[in-house]
Amino acid sequence: MTTGLLELVGVSRMFRRDGRDVPALADVDLRIARTSFVCVVGASGSGKSTLLSLVAGLDRPSTGEILLDGNPVRGPGPDRGLVSQGGAVYPWRTVERNVAFGLELLRIDRAERARRVGWYLAETGLTALRSALPKQLSGGQRQRVAIARALACEPDVLLLDEPFGALDVQTKEDMQLFIRRVWRDTGTTVLMVTHDVEEAVFLGQRVVVLASDPGRVAADITLELPEERDLDLKRTPEFLALRARVEDLVRTFHHAT
Domain ABC transporter spans what residues (predicted)? Predict the structure, then answer.
């Protein structure tokens, strides 16, 4: 894949509150390379979800510009797929029809639609559940459906907003292994927001730490960890040191505001 270069240039977002402008993000500069996996962490009030909404095109910056492959982001589009904590699957649609939803809005023929749905069902381990309704699925399975639906449109960038925050620890770790594998298999650029520092260090190639009030880039850390990762990595001295470093940064830049 040759697309998926994401750039934020001087991005700020102001909100009107009680008759005055309140900055949620201030002068954010960020470059996310094609096919990379970048996690954003920060305390409450650091603008993590605001940043993701801007990249998704659900909101517009007050100042600055967001570029995808050199083209300004002006609104939502199939070149970006968004998955939130709730997953937002359609309860009246089967797994298969949930995955196909975005494809129904694109100009592709039925054969290509069926090929993509079949491939992403297999990739996400949902083939045997293709006829099930969301109410018959576990929380982790519903998140797999939401991720498969976002990926089926083959976006250049996958945006993940606390996607595993509502899951139990075991399911969350299973999903972490799952999303790393899917990322490697698809070559999609991933930008993920999470409050879980351990998760960010385990998943990302880079971790961006946002300071609070207003949200701004306080640190951008390249993680010197193996590309092939399993859960045992979380117990290694290298991992524990990186996690502690990021946790200290989050705490420092929260209390410094």
Answer: 6-237
